[in-house]
Design goal:
The complex is a heterodimer. By secondary structure, chain A is mainly alpha-helical. Chain A is built from 16 helices and no strands. Classes of the chains: A mainly alpha, B alpha/beta.
Chain lengths: ~475, ~1000
């Protein structure tokens, strides 16, 4: 932080400051904290309307899961041969969404990408909520979630007296996802500590002070605290980084280790990870644009942030497109007739529409981001972020359902049709996700104040007029 | 995986495809898909769903009052004091016999604590030889049918047996001039004797036998050909060349497994030299039957054209048939040549649905070939006086009833109000009879038309006896007291004849009058009594046949010909309310829960018909609406509509399922009705089939190769290159980084081999598996969602031309892979490998991730998507095999090789060895028999210890034609197939 890079003011147009509006440290604290401290009627009405909507959808999820548990998986459209359909599609979809959080938090942190600071907190929160949504599906897709505790986790038990089958990728999944959830939660919470302390210090009510005080872990902002904090944060970032790669790789093993053509491919781990980052960034984009609008955060989430994310979407979208092509090439090149048929069937079989939906949304649409105008157009990127996630959902559906519906023996071929329960359950998970996110945005500092201040201090020097240089390291970020 | 190569089409043989929709990539299939997508109502709330039906069933049962399971009333040894050798909870087997439309088959019934649960064939009985058909397997479920009639009904009101007895005693029948008795074909010696008594008491009474499915035409044919009524016994095992003139002897034209048993003796290749003995089958028929599917060569012809074919064939035997163009001429020439070459080893059989003259022509051809007495034998089929039969008998009866000449009619079994030809309007005639008494298992269409309805005992609840057409009898022993207090036919007739007695007394009295007490006891044990009737050697009366052939009207060429066949599931309506049968896919159409108007692809194109289109079949005043299904191989210009559906009073399972063929079936055109019009109504219907549309042939863009799933070749090719079947796919050597986990070279190693050359695709194994393993019935709605539960299924593929294909049938049980893909993916190790090579399922460990099913290349794992057993009425749960767990929802299940039978065999041999030799002995071949294997009429399934070199399965697996399905995946399936060797006539089929 001590190295000050001076920037030519003429380049401001190319590389604008990350925080706009001439904010100083006090402004940052006030702007962000005031959201959480606002009285009920001070929060914009549009927020409460949004929360009411998402809450209703969350209730739908609860109803659908209760209906499922009462009757069995038969209320979904799953069948033989399509044993997994929307359930696992949704699981992979949500896990993928979660990827952007860790990527933004950890990898961009390690790469010293300062633009992450405005968005990392919400991205991390999004990760947590997405993993929660994802977790619903493996738990409930058995139809008997009460059995999950003993099969998901290696808990000593008397009815089995045996361990799980550690050869099963589903068990790997359990460990991968729960590790990911734990680390992501720790990382998120660690980052929150200085901001919680800020809120604690500003809190007026006794209850608030105690609760915030408890979670602030006695943070006083001393240099020692900061040193430990920085080290801890760095370690957690280091731990999280391999997880970005591992979680979705492990999820992809669910398919890659099977014998089913269309599943049994070695390209899956990198391809899944790229896809996850792709969809995760798109989801962050959707959420940030909404929050920016709902909570007036234009100065903190600037067009530069959004543009950077669009660049990542362009890169990962292209990787995904490349992977699709590679899959096809290998299916042809391998000479394996079943593999060839599966890919032919994907594109031209009964699910052709799902395949071409995926291709259009994931491969063609990100290419628009080669244009800077489009990359910086908020309406365009909002639509695009949704298109990308539709495409990524279809990618998982194509991989899972179309591979299963026609495999080796034509006699056992089938067709999957979702029921209204399938559809409502999936919609319901958005209710959970958005409700959690809205609650987070209202009750916790959505933007990492302490980190933004770091950037602010840095930029203060960077964009200061020549001759008015100040020593930035003396102004190390601390709670105001 | 990438090393796997399917050989080019030329090496894998013909192209396989499964349905026209796929072959044509039909838009209607897409439409159907779209119509179904997305589904807007959950099946749980669907008013017509099976679950609702079961609720109704439960309710109806509850209202009727629970009738507890009870043991037969006559106790030979009281249970209370304990019985020597009786172990509660252990299975006991008893012999009995079943009669379906006058065809008797000896059975062995497995019972647990007085509860019959499983039907097996009686190995000693000539009509069974150890096998049972699908219908017989399912007949055990009928006992526990909650819709069964429980009360005596008088004028639709509740009554009781005492009231009936009083009313019966009060009948003033005089000499019986106004008395008629209508029954199905009587093959019970005891009933025949009681009939004699009754007719003696009422010297002017008449007895009419009517079956909607019968061998009456065969009988008429012998009268025409030989001048005497004879039973015909084709000896399929003695025939080298068989020509079936529309006789579906492997399928719907026989109610016993006997024909398949005999036929399969020359279809199996147990050892290399058997190849020389393989028979060749030619079939001429209109609908694509199971027999047609098993034929080497098949000719499509309208039902009415078969007669001309037979006449041409007869002429061709003496004068060389004129060489002509077209398939028929070639076929005829080849058949003539082949039959002549086979001489007395040839056999021509005529269909039971063909008129007498075709039968007579067949007899004449057989005589000309020298086959009579060699491949076909005859026994006398004389009928006593005052017994009328067939449609003519029923016609006379209804005429007398309508004319008011009948004042009392007793209907013993059957359901004539539903099955009688539409023109006779039996129900209306019945209403003119003052006293009508119906004895039946259900309050069916006839019961509601009759004044009195009496509940009938199921055949497993009552004493009786049954004689095969060859004269061998079997005693029908009850397994359980009548659950609903029903009476048997013999008890009712004895009562009316004035000697009311219990069934046991009647049967025993009859037999002990003829044989000793010891012989009677032996008969009960063996399930067989008597050695059969003497064969006769009749001579054909060529002149009579020639004049009959000349006199018979030429078949009407105009209009569509509608053919009626018994349904493979509902038969003629007897099994309509049997849920197992409703869900057993038809062997050819794979249709469940309904029937369809089968039309040829050409006819569908010409008339713009698509699968599921509702059409009206009409001729004059007779018409019925039915849904079309396009059936490749159907003769053009014909529609086949199976019987037994569209019933209004079958019960909660069978009501309003399918379309009623009897509405257009008339006494003049009982089997083939020409002159019909087919017009679309505009409506549609969704058929539930268990095989979705798909093709075995890869798309042309991918080279159009055939997946080597069902493998077959001609004998010629096989002789030239015995490895041809094995080499249809290249199997690379398995290279693994893992050391071998298990040693499969020692101990019992269970394996199965299925001979595709012998398997006919008859479904007996499918239902046997369902009965043995408590597999649930899921209902039409769930079948449409692809959730049927049969552990063993039969895959049907069409081969060749869309219009006139061949068909092949392949049973698919679990392959019990040694490298099972299902096992390693299970997170809780609920499916694991046993040291004996079984892929075991631990149901209580299964949590239901369905990963195993996804990863199964054969898709033989079945998931309980809903609690399919939950709402089953208690009474129906009595059919469950106590040795097999009933699975709740959320559990995966699959074929276990009947592991309960393996374990039982281990216990048995242990005890047996101790008893006899002092040490436990090893399981020998034949000690363990799986349910599918046991009932297979073709003995196509071999099961046993593959480490035992003298076991049948080990020997079969050594054959060159043994192959593992998808063995290129290196899963090492324990179930393997023996490729079919087709004894093709090179003149009719050039390439293999």
């Amino acid at each position: 932080m001590s190295v000050v890079v001076r920037q030519d003011p003429q380049l401001l147009g190319v590389n604008p400051p990350l925080i706009q509006g001439g904010k100083d440290f006090r402004d940052v604290t006030n702007d962000i904290s005031s959201i959480t401290e606002a009285k009920v009627f001070e929060t914009p009405m549009k927020y409460w309307i949004a929360l009411a909507c998402t809450g209703s959808v969350l209730a739908l999820l609860g109803a659908m899961l209760a209906y499922l548990v009462a009757n069995g998986v038969g209320v979904w459209g799953n069948n033989r041969p399509v044993g997994w359909a929307w359930d696992i599609t949704n699981f992979v979809f949500w896990i993928g969404i979660g990827h952007a959080g860790t990527l933004i938090s950890a990898i961009l942190f390690l790469f010293r990408q300062k633009w992450r600071t405005s968005i990392n907190r919400s991205a991390e929160a999004m990760t947590l909520f997405a993993v929660m949504c994802a977790g619903i599906f493996p738990l409930f897709h058995t139809g008997r979630p009460w059995r999950a505790a003993y099969w998901l986790f290696p808990i000593p038990n008397t009815d089995l007296n045996m361990w799980q089958n550690f050869r099963s990728p589903l068990i790997w999944d359990v460990f991968a996802v729960s590790t990911y959830l734990t680390i992501s939660a720790l990382f998120w919470f660690t980052g929150l500590v200085p901001d919680l302390a800020t809120l604690r210090d500003r809190a007026t009510g006794k209850v608030k002070q105690v609760v915030l005080g408890f979670f602030a872990l006695g943070w006083r902002g001393s240099a020692k605290h900061w040193r430990n904090y920085e080290a801890g944060y760095m370690i957690l970032a280091g731990l999280s980084t391999p997880l970005v790669l591992s979680v979705h790789s492990v999820v992809s093993f669910d398919f890659a280790t099977s014998v089913i053509p269309g599943w049994h491919t070695t390209i899956f781990p990198p391809y899944f990870v790229a896809g996850a980052v792709f969809s995760g960034f798109a989801m962050v984009m959707t959420l940030l644009i909404i929050c920016r609008y709902l909570l007036n955060l234009d100065n903190y989430i600037t067009i530069k942030h959004l543009e950077n994310m669009n660049k990542i979407i362009l890169v990962t979208g292209s990787i995904v497109g490349y992977a699709y092509c590679t899959e096809f090439f290998i299916a042809w090149y391998s000479g394996n007739p079943y593999e060839r048929f599966t890919f032919f069937n994907r594109a031209f079989g009964p699910y052709w529409w799902a395949y071409w939906m995926m291709m259009t949304c994931n491969v063609i649409s990100p290419q628009f981001y080669w244009s800077k105008t489009l990359r910086r157009s908020i309406p365009f990127m909002f639509v695009m972020s949704i298109v990308v996630n539709i495409g990524m959902w279809f990618e998982r559906f194509v991989i899972i359902a179309t591979s299963l519906h026609r495999d080796f023996l034509p006699s056992s071929w089938g067709y999957f049709r979702p029921t209204w329960v399938d559809i409502s359950t999936f919609i319901g998970t958005f209710g959970l996700f958005l409700t959690m996110f809205l609650l987070f945005a209202r009750f916790l500092p959505m933007i990492a104040m302490s980190e933004v201040k770091g950037v602010l201090a840095h930029e203060k020097h960077a964009f200061a007029a020549p001759g008015t240089n100040q020593e930035s390291h003396e102004e190390a970020p601390k709670h105001a | 995986m990438s090393l796997v190569q399917i050989s080019p089409a030329s090496k894998t043989g013909p192209k396989y495809w499964r349905s026209l929709d796929q072959a044509a990539n039909a838009p209607e299939f897409r439409q159907w898909v779209e119509r179904e997508f997305p589904s807007t109502a959950a099946e749980m709330l669907d008013g017509n769903s099976r679950r609702t039906i079961l609720k109704l069933m439960a309710a109806s049962f509850g209202m009727a009052g629970l009738v507890a399971c009870s043991r037969p009333e006559i106790r030979f040894a009281p249970q209370a004091r304990g019985q020597e050798d009786y172990v509660p909870g252990q299975a006991y087997n008893y012999t009995t016999a079943i009669v379906i439309n006058g065809q008797a088959t000896g059975l062995v019934i497995k019972t647990y604590d007085g509860r019959p649960v499983k039907v097996e064939g009686n190995p000693d009985h000539p009509a069974s030889q150890g096998a049972a058909t699908a219908l017989m397997q399912a007949s055990v479920l009928d006992i526990y049918d909650p819709d069964r009639s429980k009360l005596v009904m008088n004028a639709q009101k509740e009554s009781n047996w005492e009231a009936f007895s009083a009313a019966a005693a009060g009948l003033n029948l005089g000499d019986g001039a106004g008395l008629r008795i209508l029954s199905e074909a009587v093959v019970s010696p005891t009933l025949e004797s009681l009939r004699g008594q009754l007719l003696a008491k009422y010297p002017a009474a008449r007895w009419v036998e009517f079956d909607s499915v019968s061998r009456e035409n065969e009988r008429q044919g012998t009268m025409l050909a030989f001048g005497q009524a004879l039973n015909v016994h084709p000896q399929y095992d003695k025939a080298r060349v068989v020509l079936s003139l529309d006789q579906d002897f492997l399928g719907l034209d026989t109610a016993s497994p006997q024909a398949t048993k005999l036929f399969s003796k020359r279809r199996r290749v147990e050892a290399e030299e058997d190849i020389e003995r393989l028979s060749r089958l030619y079939v001429v028929e209109s609908q694509f039957s199971l027999t047609g599917a098993n034929a080497e060569h098949r000719l499509r012809a309208k039902g009415g054209e078969v007669r001309q074919f037979a006449a041409d064939l007869l002429a061709g035997l003496t004068a060389e048939p004129a060489a002509g163009e077209g398939k028929r001429a070639q076929f005829l020439a080849a058949v003539v040549k082949d039959l002549k070459a086979a001489g007395k080893e040839a056999l021509v059989v005529a269909g039971h649905r063909q008129p007498a003259v075709v039968h007579a022509l067949a007899h004449q051809i057989n005589q000309a070939l020298g086959a009579n007495g060699s491949t076909v034998t005859f026994t006398s089929a004389a009928r006593p006086d005052r017994v009328d039969a067939g449609i003519e008998g029923l016609k006379t009866l209804t005429a007398a009833m309508s004319a008011g000449q009948v004042n009392a009619i007793i209907i013993v079994g059957g359901n004539p109000a539903y099955t009688a030809p539409a023109d006779l309007d039996f129900a209306a005639a019945l209403s003119k009879v003052a006293t009508s008494i119906h004895l039946g298992m259900h309050v069916n269409e006839t019961a509601t038309a009759a004044k009195w309805h009496l509940p009938e005992a199921h055949y497993l609840e009552a004493w009786g006896d049954a004689r095969t057409s060859a004269g061998v009898s079997a005693i029908q022993q009850p397994m359980i007291d009548p659950l609903y207090g029903g009476k048997s036919a013999i008890e009712l007739i004895a009562q009316l004849a004035g000697t009311p007695e219990k069934g046991y007394a009647l049967v025993k009295k009859f037999w002990t009058a003829q044989v000793s007490e010891a012989a009677w006891r032996k008969a009960l044990n063996d399930g067989i009594i008597g050695s059969g009737a003497a064969t006769v050697s009749p001579t054909v009366n060529a002149g009579a046949i020639a004049s009959a052939a000349a006199a018979a009207p030429a078949s009407a060429a105009n209009g569509v010909e509608v053919a009626f066949v018994p349904s493979s599931a509902a038969w003629d309506g007897k099994y309509t309310n049997n849920a197992w049968m409703q869900e057993t896919p038809d062997s050819m159409t794979k249709l469940v829960w309904g029937n369809a108007a089968l039309v040829s692809p050409k006819m569908a194109r010409d008339q713009q018909l698509a699968n599921g289109d509702m059409v009206t079949l009409a001729q004059g005043k007779y018409k019925v609406d039915a849904a079309v299904m396009i059936q490749p191989g159907q003769a053009d210009g014909t529609v086949t509509l199976s019987m037994g559906y569209g019933r209004t009073r079958a019960g909660s399972v069978g009501n309003e399922v399918g379309f009623n063929a009897n509405l257009i079936r008339t006494s003049d055109n009982f089997w083939y009705a020409p002159g019909f019009t087919v017009s679309k109504t505009g409506g549609t219907h969704v058929h539930a089939t268990t095989q979705e549309h798909g093709t075995m042939v890869e798309p042309a863009e991918l080279g159009g190769n055939t997946r080597p799933v069902f493998r077959e070749t001609s004998i010629e090719e096989y002789r030239k290159e015995p490895k041809i079947i094995k080499e249809m796919v290249e199997v690379p050597e398995l290279v693994s980084i893992h050391p071998a986990v298990a040693d499969y070279t020692t101990g019992y190693q269970w394996g199965m081999a299925i001979d595709l050359g012998a398997c006919t695709g008859c479904n007996a194994c499918v239902v046997a598996c369902q009965a043995e393993n408590n597999t649930p019935v899921v209902g039409k709605d769930q079948v449409l969602r692809g959730r049927e539960m049969h552990w063993l299924r039969i895959d049907r593929y069409y081969v060749g031309d869309e219009e006139d294909p061949r068909a092949v049938e392949q049973p698919i049980p679990c392959m019990q892979c040694e490298n099972a893909p299902c096992e390693y993916v299970c997170p809780v190790a609920a499916t694991t490998h046993s040291p004996e090579g079984l892929n075991d399922m631990a149901y209580n460990r299964c949590v239901g991730t369905r990963y195993c099913a996804n990863n199964c290349p054969y898709k033989v794992r079945h998931f309980n998507f809903l609690n399919f057993h939950k709402e089953m009425p208690d009474i129906m749960a009595m059919v469950h095999n106590p040795e097999v767990t009933v699975r709740m929802r959320g559990i995966m299940e699959k074929c276990t090789y009947c592991v309960q039978r393996i374990q039982n065999a281990k216990i048995t041999v242990k005890a047996d060895g101790r008893q006899k030799e002092g040490t436990p002995r090893e399981i020998k071949d034949g000690d363990v028999v799986t349910a599918c294997q046991q009932t297979c009429p073709a003995d196509a399934i071999a099961f046993g210890n593959i480490n035992d070199p003298i076991s049948r399965v080990a020997k079969l697996k050594k054959q060159e034609r043994n192959y593992g399905l998808l063995e290129e995946l290196q899963v090492r399936p324990r179930t393997t197939y023996l490729g079919r060797l087709r004894n093709v006539n090179p003149e009719l089929e050039k390439e293999a």
